[in-house]
Amino acid sequence: PIQTPKVNNKCKKSNPPSPASPEMASTKPAENVPSGDVQQDIQSIFTILNKIASDTSTITSNISEINSKLDNIDKRLDETENHVAKLEDHVEEELGKTTEIETKLTKAWAIEKGRPIDFLNCFLPELPDLPEDLTLRIERAHRSLAPLPRSQQRPRLIIMCLLEFQTQVLLLRKAADRSRICPGKDIKYVYFKISLGRFRGKGRLLQKGRGHGIKYMMAYRIILRVQRDGKQHNFQDPVKVLAFV
């Protein structure tokens, strides 16, 4: 074998290559390449491991943050679903009310084919002292269940229910004075609905009046009108009625 002579590096002198020369780039040691020094290599390994541990900790923190955001998104989705469910229930309830109103209107028109409603729409706006732009919104109207009257008897009563309370109050105020309802014509009677408790409060008076053959009627503002000896007497106090009877 051919032996190459050993060269003393200390005695060897050479010009250092320029930084821009390709020789410098080729002789630059690569990163993470063992340098030959065991202690330095171990230190480099520990540095790399610490960096990996730091990167792993950062990744774990990011994953935890992502999981927290996903939990918040799930919570908001649940709240949104509950809100949508409540809205659907509310819409269904409103649709049920609308259907109920439509059914009532249909039934109101079906009773006697709407003839009482047509009569009231023609008769009531012609009453004096009523606004010209008055619109009657009648929920339902039908004649009472009394027997069919004869030609000389009084017509049956018409029972109606208005949708607007203001219109009801206006008509009842006009009905308080019967002479203004239909002057020069047959007197029309307008009755109003009162609570059962207030009606029962005058039940004993009415029963006693019937026993004496006294005619009576209920007028607006809970006035008991008694007719005796051809004269009419109005009472609002039950004590005065008992004293009169």
Give, in order, the helices and strands.
HHHEEHHHEEEH
Which ranges are low-confidence, i.e. pLDDT below 50, for 5 or more consecutive residues? 1-14, 16-30, 179-188
User: What CATH architecture of the domain at 194-245 do you see?
Assistant: 2-Layer Sandwich
Strand content: 5-15%
Estimate the global geometry from the Cα principal axes: rod-shaped
Number of helices: 7
Count all strands and give the number. Answer: 5
Largest sheet: number of strands, sense, barrel closure: 3 strands, antiparallel
Question: Which structural category do the helix and sheet elements fall into?
Answer: mainly alpha
CATH-assigned fold name of the domain at 194-245: Rec A Protein, domain 2
Overall average pLDDT: 71
Helix content: 40-55%
| N-to-C span | 156 Å
Protein name: L1 transposable element RRM domain-containing protein
Coiled coil: 63-97
Keywords: Coiled coil
Region (Disordered): 1-37
Please describe what this structure looks like.
- This protein has a domain at 194-245: L1 transposable element, C-terminal domain (Rec A Protein, domain 2, 2-Layer Sandwich).
- The strands form 2 sheets. The protein has a 3-stranded antiparallel β-sheet with strand order 3-4-5, with helices on one face. It has a two-stranded antiparallel ribbon with strand order 1-2.
- It is mainly alpha-helical.
- The chain contains 7 helices and 5 strands, in the order αααββαααβββα.
- It is rod-shaped and about 140 Å long.
- Residues 1-14, 16-30 and 179-188 have low confidence and may be disordered.
